[in-house]
Write a structure and sequence with these properties.
Layout (H helix, E strand, L loop, with lengths): L9 H15 L8 E6 L6 E6 L2 E3 L2 E5 L6 H9 L1 E6 L2 E9 L6 H15 L12 H7 L5 E6 L1
Antiparallel strand pairs: 1-2, 1-5, 3-4, 4-7, 5-6, 6-7
InterPro entries: F420H2_quin_Rdtase (IPR004378), Split_barrel_FMN-bd (IPR012349)
Organism: Microbacterium terricola
Pfam family, one: F420H2_quin_red
Length: about 150
Amino acid sequence: MSERFVTPTGMDAVFNRAVGFLTRIGLPLAGSRVLAVRGRSSGEWRTTPVNPLRVGGARYLVAPRGHAQWTKNLRAAGAGELRAGRRVERFTAVEVADAVKPPILRAYLTAWAWEVGRFFEGIDAHSSDEELLQVAPGFPVFLIEPA
């Protein structure tokens, strides 16, 4: 199975830089955070803007573009930081099984479709559980808990 990944466009890169900048200076866009995780080969901190999501009292990170470098690094590290301005939240992460992703993906699409819906290619918050299960392997999801 090849891992799904949607390469960012030039506009995506500009948007991500803007969101990352605003979040780093303490002005997060709609709850965005800067994810910091150690590189799996280099050990260097790598950062990217993310949209944490709360579902049923638990917090998650969803990878709308698929198996991005940050997902591979988070799998390897098992921990990271969410940053907004001077606030740093350290967390541990466990990848969620595909079978439990539908309600998480649905909530993510409800909250963030305006920003990331195009990466889901015809799937939206109103899609059936079966449709969400079908696409679940292409969207890594991590349960995050305070470290």
